[in-house]
Design goal:
Elements: E1 3-13, E2 22-27, H1 35-45, E3 49-54, E4 61-66, E5 71-72, H2 77-88, E6 98-105, E7 108-117, E8 120-128, E9 132-136, H3 139-142, E10 160-163, E11 167-172, H4 176-179, H5 186-196, E12 201-206, E13 215-220, H6 232-244, E14 252-257, E15 265-274, E16 277-285, E17 287-298
Length: 300
């Protein structure tokens, strides 16, 4: 059987240091791959997400993101990783200081800014959807799912489902130390998430490990044995939540994640608009390439 080579790279997003932040496998020219082949590659790569770049009739590129389990309509860290990979491989003509491209996701077309210095990409900023704020929960209604007491959560705002492209249960806790105490009730969370139509919860605190960090967070998906190091889509939702309810004045926040799994990541969230009239959420970060290879796909 004939095979076709599809070069890929592993890119660590939301970090400038290899083996930190969140890894993503990126195939920058995936035209010709079937849905099954993309899912099989994602399962084989076994990264939090794998990204596949395809032609688009409505944007510069179409991007599809797969976890080892399923396809996602939208995700944050693969967008940072993919834009860096496209720029580094010469798929995008770069202009200083900022080159803007449009990417087609499963949720629609969104702009991505690539900040360029001396001809190379140094920072990528993605624009997420206008946030939607959905159902609330009481602290004592969600804390037990994480092995916490209601008193471990903040008492000045309620856990809430928030989306800037993908919905998450946003749970504010009292401090960074509380994030280290979490013990999941996985079966209970699976049942809860099926009821409220989310895949994961995002627990966060004000403050972090670095002196200048405004927030620290952890993502909990009861069906995933590996904790996500830095979750871009959830970070945007969290930033919108923090500004809306006065936990941070905005408009920019330095967000940390990944320290509890030894892959520290860092991103910058920008909230556009007033706290109760947020117009857009932007999320920026760096990335670094760590692996190159080729996927040998049958039928090419």
């Amino acid at each position: 059987m004939r095979t076709k080579r599809y070069p890929f790279v592993y890119v660590d997003a939301f970090t400038s240091e290899p083996f930190a932040g969140n890894p993503c496998a990126v195939i920058t020219d995936a035209a010709g791959l079937t849905d099954e082949q993309m899912q099989n590659f994602a399962r084989e790569a076994n990264q939090p997400e794998s990204a596949f770049v395809l032609p688009s009739d409505v944007a510069d590129f179409c991007v599809r993101y797969f976890t080892p389990r399923k396809e996602l309509p939208f995700a944050g860290h693969p967008t940072i990783a993919t834009a860096f990979a496209l720029a580094q491989e010469g798929r995008i003509p770069l202009q200083e200081p900022v080159t803007t491209i449009d990417l087609e996701f499963g949720i629609g077309v969104l702009p991505v800014e690539i900040h360029v210095e001396d001809g190379v990409p140094v920072h990528v900023v993605m624009t997420q959807q206008t946030p939607s704020f959905r159902m609330f929960f009481t602290p004592d209604g969600v804390a037990p799912y994480f092995g916490l007491a209601a008193a471990d959560l903040r008492d000045d705002c309620l856990p809430q489902v928030v989306s800037t492209g993908a919905p998450f249960l946003i749970v504010p806790v009292g401090d960074v130390e509380t994030l280290g105490k979490v013990e999941l009730d996985r079966d209970g969370l699976v049942e809860l998430f099926e009821q409220i139509d989310v895949d994961a919860a995002f627990l966060f605190s004000i403050g972090g490990f670095a002196p200048d960090a405004d927030t620290h967070a952890r993502l909990f998906d009861p069906l995933n044995a590996i904790e996500d190091p830095f979750t871009g889509s959830a970070t945007g939702a969290m930033g919108a939540y923090a500004v809306r309810y006065g936990l941070h004045p905005g408009p920019t926040l330095i967000a940390e994640q990944g320290h509890f799994v030894q892959r520290p990541g860092r991103g910058i969230v920008e909230i556009v608009g007033l706290p109760h009239g947020i117009q857009a959420v932007k999320l920026g970060g760096t990335a670094v390439k760590v692996v190159e290879g080729a996927f040998l796909a049958a039928g090419g």
